[in-house]
Amino acid sequence: MNKTRVRQLWFAATLLLSLVLMLIPLPGPLTPYKPYWPALVLLYWCLQSGDRVGLGLAFCLGLGADLFDGMLLGEQALRLTAMVFIALRFRSRLRFFPMWQQTLAVLGFLLNDRVLLLLVRVLGGDPLPPADFWISPFVGAALWPFLFLILDDLRARLRIHEA
Fold this sequence. Notes:
Number of domains: 1
Structural class: mainly alpha
Radius of gyration: 16 Å
Low-confidence stretches: none
Order of helices and strands: HHHHHHH
Largest sheet: none
Distance between the termini: 17 Å
Protein name: Rod shape-determining protein MreD
Mean pLDDT: 91
Function: Involved in formation of the rod shape of the cell. May also contribute to regulation of formation of penicillin-binding proteins.
Helix content: over 70%
Transmembrane segments: 56-73, 94-111, 131-151
GO cellular component, one term: plasma membrane
Strand content: under 5%
Keywords: Cell inner membrane, Cell membrane, Cell shape, Membrane, Transmembrane, Transmembrane helix
């Protein structure tokens, strides 16, 4: 199998895995601690290969996540598209941040995502969510260094580098 094919399969597999991880149910008290996996994986790919991730891909992945999760159609598509737009805008700076600064930036992205989710849900007529609604971005930011290093290590082991 040639390197281009391996790169494409690895990219698609990580995005599909993020959707599968999003669907795994957690017990009731742990549900607020569930990170937003598609956003974390898309942020990784935005930083590693910005030419491969675009607004169209983020929108399509968000629509797929909406269909898988049974959410309001377009809700996650809007959130992921906004996140990828901002990440691509600041990609050249974020790539060279130390890990702790990248983690803070990811926390900012995930908090922005929660604000968009809150706006969509409140404008849709839902009541305000409980305080534990805000825990998930902090869990995602805490997992970011590990996710980044694992995906980067696997990419290096498979010798998948951008041309």
